Amino acid sequence: MPKLENIKKVLVIGSGPIIIGQAAEFDYAGTQACRALKEEGLEVVLVNSNPATIMTDVHIADRVYIEPVNVEFIENIIRKERPDSMLATLGGQVGLNLALELEDKGILREYNVKLLGTQIRSIKRAEDRELFKETMEKINQPIPESTIVETISAAKEFAKEVGFPLIVRPAYTLGGTGGGIAESEEELDEIVNKGLKYSLIGQALIERSVAGWKEIEYEVLRDADDNCITVCSMENLDPVGVHTGDSIVAAPAQTLTDREVQLLRQASIDIVRELEVCGGCNVQLALDPYSERYYVIEVNPRVSRSSALASKATGYPIAKVASKIAVGYTLDEIQNAVTKKTTACFEPSLDYVVLKFPRWPFDKFVTADKTLGTQMKATGEVMAIERNLEAAMLKAIRSLEIGLIHLDMPELRDVCDADLRDRISKIDDERLFVIAEAFRRGTTIEFVHEITKIDRWFLQKVMNIVKMEEVIKTHPLSETIMRKAKRMGFADITIGQLVGKEAMEIRAMRKEMGIMPTFKMVDTCAAEFEAETPYYYSTYGQEDEVLVTDKKKVCVLGSGPIRIGQGVEFDYCSVHSVWALKELGYETIIINNNPETVSTDFDTADRLYFEPLTLEDVLNILDKEQPEGVIVQFGGQTAINLAGPLAAAGIKILGSTVDSIDKAEDRERFDQLLTECDIPRPQGFTVFDTDGAVKAAETVGYPVMVRPSYVLGGRAMEIVYNVDELKYYMSHAVKASKEHPVLVDHYLQGTEVEVDAICDGTDVLIPGIMEHIERAGVHSGDSIAVYPPQTISEHVIKTIINYTNKLALGLEVKGMINIQYIVRGSEVYVIEVNPRSSRTVPFLSKVTTIPMINVATKAAMGVSIKEQGFKPGLGYFPDYYAVKAPVFSFNKMSNVDITLGPEMKSTGEVMCVDYQYSRALYKACIASGLNVPHEGSILITVADQDKPEAAEIAAGFEELGYQIMATGGTAAYLKEKGINVEVANKLSDNEHDILDDIKEGRISMVINTTNHGKDAERDGFKIRRATVEHAIACLTSMDTARELQRVMSAMRRRRVVSVVALQDLAWEE
Amino acid sequence: MHKIARKGKLVLKDGSVYEGELYGKRNAVGEVVFTTGMSGYQETLTDPSFCDQIVVMTYPLVGNYGINPMFNQGDRCFFQGYVISELCDHPSNWTNEKSLEEFLDEQDIPTLVGVDTRAITRRLRNYGVIQGVIVPSEMPQEEVDKLLATPDVHDQVEKVTTKKIYKMGDGKFNVAVMDYGIKRNILEYLVSFGCNLTVYPAFTSAEEVLASNPDGIFLSNGPGDPKDLTEVIENIKKFLGKKPIFGICLGHQLLALANGADTYKLKFGHRGINHPVKDLVEHKVCISSQNHGYAVEEESLKKINAEVTNVSLNDGTIEGIKYLDHPTFAVQYHPEACPGPGGHEYLFERFVKMMGGQK
Fold first, then answer.
1. Which residue of B has its CA nearest to A342?
2. Which fold does the domain A146-208 belong to in CATH?
3. Dmax over Cα atoms in chain B, in whole Å?
4. Three-state SS at A142
């Protein structure tokens, strides 16, 4: 029972969809919170719009609302459920903001809901700029001096007081334009002058710059009795200036004296006590590298990405403890979940080093500005645990899955010395690699330190790695050198490359030398107390402390860092697979390296190995554990890519075999299967060079879809309309070769339909079919998906069932299969088949109530679908509708085109369910953050081929009372069709143009598609970016526009807000 | 400098052997203990309480920020030997004056590097503290055995205490400080709380100390088994009731013995900077710096008029005692930190208050 009296029913606020800056860490935190509260016997009501999460599973909370996370919907949930309390500090910034809004609007008071944990006053004192300043001043905690100026003379006055450098941030500008760091009065003059001009309100914020100082973070927990501990200190390798989410971070702090550590620790505790935080809090500080001066940069009175990292880095479950504190426990009343002997009121001691490395989406967004600064750009991160920093760094790099296995980026070898030196000063995703390359060419640590301000200690570690490469290259590979290299974290493959041998040869050599990794436990206490956590990492030490059991066991491979195309959905799948295996009585082993996730919670699997997902690292674990086999189909492409090499090394792949995977991925074999099964597909060829591509395109006919083979998330996939575009693509977008062929397919326009099915080798279970609103050509991950399908006929459904059965059985799938079809009239074509779990599985599992991963895992382990009590074939259609909508993070990425296409661009997704289709769709649009206007002007500027459709849509919107604006060609066409159009000026230098209209708020939504052609593309790009920066909706697919128009029309006649708990979804059989 | 290290080993009395690279010329023989602090290696190295021990650092990276005399807690390092996983040869911090390697060389501390310190820690945790030696790899077993048979030392306090009386501070409370191996930060704390210190060698007679008529007496931390210090205990008995007394660590144990309670050796001690201590009077938990291998026996307190004021949240052992017959109290942990967390200043305030009451 909770310590606090009168609490029986708690509303937990989730963080919503995954966007840059708010990712899987809140699934981990939220899941822990729900469980911790349930443990106390509380009834838990959860709201979170993100279906791809464990926390929104029906068994995690008693009432699960997958609904938009905003005040309107939450008020409805409160009205319906009448919770007596609410926990908001585990739902990220979204949760905090909602708590403030609900309080401000009097909703908490009205419904008598008590806010648990950190209270409103504390949140305000941490979040509100002025209140925060006041609070820090009260307790003598220094924050960077700042002021708001409207004149240059005021700026100069401030500079006299504070000195240089100063950061200038113009108020209300787009994407931070006009700001900068001033080192002198002249520079200040220039930057402020410009800044005041750019600022819409003629104001600029001037603040002391501590760029280049050490950035240190503390994770702090405090209870209502004022007991206060710090769980972990963290030191950013990147000095102040780079967002901590984009920084490489080490734990614990490495370059601080004990006095500095204690100084900042005490400051953090003093702050958290003064704020009266009740739960978790993150404190970020800047420390002068040359004195004990420091500034408090930021305080987040909630669990965060950093607290997830600290939890995984130390083994201390911050979110769980914060939840217990929220219901009234004190730290010393809560058990240490790791040792089970001591309490949660202690500070973990690490006997290893942890390094976090961000994962950026620049492989997807090739045009994006890669400069790292105060705006976070990473979509995910990896964490590595080792006994020294070099090894942790190399493990982290191997975990990133950016095609590198070492601190060595081959492309940089071709960069000339001068350019390389220039690049050292450029803070981007490749900086660490640039530094390593510079060291290889003789650049000194001092030189790099002067430019980057990265602490020499970290630079020395990079240098050590570079020097070790040299030692390996120039000496015979003795046992001593081999041991040293392995201790420093060098992969077999790296050592092999340095000495001209294959990785497997090196592996054999070191096994011969008796150099094998040992496994150690993460136990929160540096081995001081016996611990029971099954949480391990590898290192080349003397003692292996991990005892292998004689139980039957299975290993599940996780999916690594969150990236575009491989998100939290795959973590959801891994976790469910582990749970299913436990049900079958297996001891479960999971290998993963993502600190944000539920899969890397130490009580998910029986054993957690926090390791890179490479062949060597995985084989080391399998060598030791000797499981019956490995399951790869739930860990996304990460795990699938390991299937072949693992099988070749003699490891049994459970479920669908490597041959099944190959049959689906190998063009010829797949074509053969389709021919055998008599299933049509758009005609296409595999080509190895430009000539081949041109020939293929001529044969199948333009437009063609081109892409490299073996990709996930449509990487480098494009639709090209003519031979010139094709040639450009072949020479710029891909590097085609014998090993890396390119696929050229006829691009078929039609309705895209997606199926996830389960096969046990005999029978096929199709839980549901989803129809995409956007026609084929928009990546399935970026499309709005509707379940059950709305427009396809009974006949087509039958065909889809038939094809799905044939493909699943033909590929000898055991487990999950994902198939994408294109429907044109009554014709069904197959476009893609993956014998693995897909991104839509969590969504479908939730809306069909069939626990798909559970069934698929058991099928893979040999329990038939029928034995599991399920009826093969297509599941029944329910009497409700579910819509999954993509969520984008374009506002975090400058220079990225937001047009939807075959390349996936979304970072997350939301789902909404309702008994009315249009309401489900409307809710999904709201939940996805699409700023749907209820009135105002809609600007339409579309390509020629889209004009007829645009006219229909425009007419629809006009009828709903919206004004229509359009550019020249589109306007003329619409006028012709009898629509009342205001003509908007195309982009020009002097006239008032569309961009001005957008800036001035005259346009509330844009519908835009572009003709091919440089000018049109450039203008379209500018318009679309302007919509992002002004947060107005921009639709780039005519299908989305049409559907939205219909929905808006339907919503005029219906009550908009209604909420449905997953537990209440009615099923009629 | 960068001397080439030899191959070396740590051999424990139970026969386990841990190989590494050996820095330093001499062999080390002593009780092997581990400490879990992740920062503060210099404070630990110069803490006289570690006299004659071989200290294992559980945190693998040591020496990161170098050495600066301002962090010293004693005049020198009294370790027998040092065992670490990685010795940082390029320290980086604005306070850095020399590398840890240079310091260890100057202090002549045999250091074994590149060792699986977690493995040793697990061994010590399971078997308890144990005698061990650090020797070159090639040393034959008979010689190792001979070294391992070196009798236990009992004279650590003699080694670490001040040789002559000295004074510190100019506050209004005259405090007689009994130096059993005092850490510098305790002295600094007392001074900062307005004390005028006279620091006495450990074996100064009670009469001599009392003759100066101090306002209070402070019993310091220090190395070894409190029961070895029979003379000191007799002296403390003479202090009881005469003046307010405050003891830390060894001082805490000696006070207990002088009051008629008992002490015992812990299996593997408390050494680190993350130990939670519950103050039963103030009802709050503080994270503390600790370094002790002995503790006061709880049963033995029942026969005397004393109250347990603090306990360890980790194992429930006694961390603080208030004696009810006279103004005397003591804590087992290190409120002066260095290394480790602060937040315990109230104990020094309490001591000062006691003296204020007397004046």
1. B314
2. Dna Ligase; domain 1 (3.30.1490)
3. 64
4. coil
Nearest to B314 by CA among B282, B281, B266, B347: B266
Distance from CA of A223 to the nearest CA of B (A): 11
The predicted pLDDT at position A768 comes to 95
Cα–Cα nearest to B41, from B79, B90, B2, B1? B79
Interface of B with A in 334-353 (CB under 8 A): 337-343
Sheet with A228-236, edge to edge strand ranges: A294-300, A279-287, A214-222, A228-236, A249-251, A353-359, A380-386
Helix (H) or strand (E) holding A418: helix A417-424
Q: Would you state the pLDDT for residue A340?
A: 79
Distance in angstroms (rounded) separating the CA atoms of residues A608 and A624? 13
* 0.80 surpassed by pTM: yes
Q: Which CATH architecture has domain B156-358?
A: 3-Layer(aba) Sandwich (3.40)
Cα within 13 Å of Cα(A1041), Cβ side? 27
- Other Cβ atoms less than 10 A from the Cβ of B332: the count is 31
Question: Quick check: B272 and A389 CB within 8 A?
Answer: no
Please determine, looking at this structure, whether the domain spanning A683-747 carries the CATH number 3.40.50.300: no
Q: Which CATH number fits domain A917-1051: 3.40.50.1380, 3.90.580.10, 3.40.50.720, 2.40.50.180?
A: 3.40.50.1380
Q: Are A481 and A513 in contact (CB under 8 A)?
A: no
Distances, alpha carbon A237 to alpha carbons A122, A165, A349, A533, B139, in Å: 31, 21, 21, 29, 43
Longest dimension (CA), chain A: 84
List C-alpha distances in Å: B96 to A289, B65, B66, B67: 12, 6, 5, 5
Residue of A126, A93, A125, A571 whose CA lies nearest to A305:
A93
The topology (CATH level 3) of A358-368+383-516 is Carbamoyl Phosphate Synthetase; Chain A, domain 4 (1.10.1030)
Region A842-866: what's the mean pLDDT?
97
Q: Which of A257, A349, A387 sits opposite B38 (nearest CB)?
A: A349
Sheet with strand A981-984: strands edge to edge: A981-984, A963-967, A937-941, A1005-1008, A1033-1035
Nearest Cα neighbor of B144 from B28, B25, B22, B24 is B28
Residue-wise pLDDT tens digits, A274-295: 999 999 999 999 999 999 999 9
Q: What's at B157, amino acid-wise? A: V
pLDDT score, position A1069:
42
| DSSP line for A439-490 | HHTT--HHHHHHHH---HHHHHHHHHHHHHHHHHHHS---HHHHHHHHHTT-
Nearest CA among A706, A592, A669, A587 for reference residue A835: A669
The domains of chain B are located at 6-148, 156-358
Distance CA A814, CA A644 (A): 16
Handedness of CA A100, A102, A106, A109 (dihedral sign): negative
Q: Which two tokens stand for residue B130?
A: 């144990």
- pLDDT the model gives residue A1013: 62
- Scanning B33-52 for CB atoms below 8 A from A yields 34, 36-40, 42-43
DSSP per residue over B59-102, as a string? SSEE-TT-B-GGG-SSSS---SEEEESEE-SS---TT--B-HHH
Packing angle between helix A305-314 and helix A25-39, nearest 10 degrees?
A: 70
CATH architecture observed for domain A519-655:
3-Layer(aba) Sandwich (3.40)
Instruction: Please tell me which residue of chain A has the smallest CA distance to B269.
Output: A528
Q: Do A528 and B36 touch (CB under 8 A)?
A: yes
pLDDT digits (tens, 9 = 90+) for A516-533: 999 999 999 999 999 888
The fold of the A129-139+211-301+304-348 domain, in CATH, is: D-amino Acid Aminotransferase; Chain A, domain 1 (3.30.470)
Q: Is B333 on the interface with A (CB under 8 A)?
A: no
Residue B180: name the closest of B251, B111, B130, B132 by CA.
B251
Q: Which of B249, B319, B338, B344 is catalytic?
A: B249
B6-148 has CATH 1.20.1250.20 classification? no
